[in-house]
Amino acid sequence: MDFGPHLMLALIEGAVLSAVLALTAAGLSLVFGVMRVVNVAHGEFYMLGAVAAWFVAAAVGGAGPAAFLAALALAPLAVCALAAAADLAVLRRIAHDPERTIVATIGLLYILQQATLMGFGPDARPVAPPFNARIAIPWPVWEEGGLALTWPWGLSVTTYKLFVIAAAAAVLAGLWLMLTRTRAGLVMRATQWDRETATAFGIPVERVYALTFGLGAGLAALAGVLVVPIQQAHYLMGGDALLLSFIVVIIGGLGSLPGTLVAALLIGMSEGIVSVFFSPTLAKILATLLVALVLVFRPQGLFGAAGR
Amino acid sequence: MLRLEAVDAGYGPVRVLRSVSFDVAAGEVHCLLGRNGAGKTTALRAIMGLLPLASGRIRFGGAEIGRLPPHRVPRLGIGYVPQGRRLFAELTVAQNLEIGRMARGAPARAVAAALDLFPRLADRLGQRAGTLSGGEQQMLAMARALCLEPRLLLLDEPTEGLQPSMIRAIRDAVAELKARGVGVLLVEQRIDAVLALADRATFLENGRCLGTLTAAELQAAPDLLRQRLGV
User: Fold this and answer.
1) What value of ipTM does the predicted structure carry?
2) Chain A: which residues have CB within 8 Å of chain B?
């Protein structure tokens, strides 16, 4: 394949990775933005989304769209409820203290991971995509008669991957609208800015925290459900998701949704391109280098506030 | 309307208020006076439920509120203007007012009524609160609390650091609230403001109540006032 079509293929893979990454990192960023805590167990909620999707799809049965759609609807809700319960049972008891929350969520990470190993097993398991038609992508070339379209072998995308990109974009747009246009978003932003004053104006901050923690986990779980027809569910899949989410939110700025989106595109696209042309390891090295540069020259991230 | 009975409260093991008792009636401006560190702000925070009571009782409208979850206190009709304003600086003026309105599910006319008291804010509804001038921020802090249509308003040094025209606007608003029957518990360090507004004043020193004076007693003893405020 020529360089141009090869690059196009890399960009498509990068866009899919960006979409999944943006959803996962948006959850982590939302939790930090509103609650000012770092959720080290965030990757496990991504993993639980994928694993729950497998269980739901297996329970519904069949390889048609019904099994996947049921998983898409139920798995994030189940993980959202589990995370909200974990917040109320664990994080509220330590008053959402930032340092103790890190330790508590490390514990939560191991509990969720080992419980999944016991209940789901060590094997990777797939969920069938609801549709997976392959669409060939035309490539323009200059010929003697002018511009013509060719169909290079291998330059194609599946309808499911396009769906992943569209679904992530729709969910992130919905999240943005919720935060900026709804009463719930106003309450979350007020809580984010000043917890005590929010309380003095009747906002039940503990309940807002539980819902935010659940929503953040639900976004990660949704990403896990979307990715499971491409990557399969595995009990250790949360590690990479957590690492990449941290990279994205550090570069974008902790708590900044636009920053998270831009950084997810940057990391996802560069990982897609570098992985296709060089190696996935080099992509990780470059991402880590970028994080180091951001931490040295702009510690608040590209879109983060310098502090108040 | 509001009654504190032998209230002890503080921060962790540090006891700031010791057996503090006073009351505020409807339509009364009651000043809470004392030097820095006397426990005035702590008393307001304890009333709002933001500090746990070690002992004692706080009653509002006859009901015990001292051990309610703090987010339920404003829903009873207690508005709070904290020291330093503590606006939601990233939100717009309109959104800050909406937070106040939502606190008690007040009707939309509550926002209009608050803006009638501070018409200057009406031109800045879309502006971020953090970009307002100091005086406008104080007006917004008061308007936000008024949007919940309070029966009692707690004001913590509302005129601190403001220019005279802004101080007049704040004082006029307090007088208007009093006329409407709203009880006001005012922490204030300016003697002229105390003498102009207070119906009664309670003195705090080292977290203890030294006593309560009426307006007439305050007018008759301005030196005592200066001595107690340390000015």
Assistant:
1) 0.91
2) 183, 186-187, 189-190, 193-194, 196-205, 308
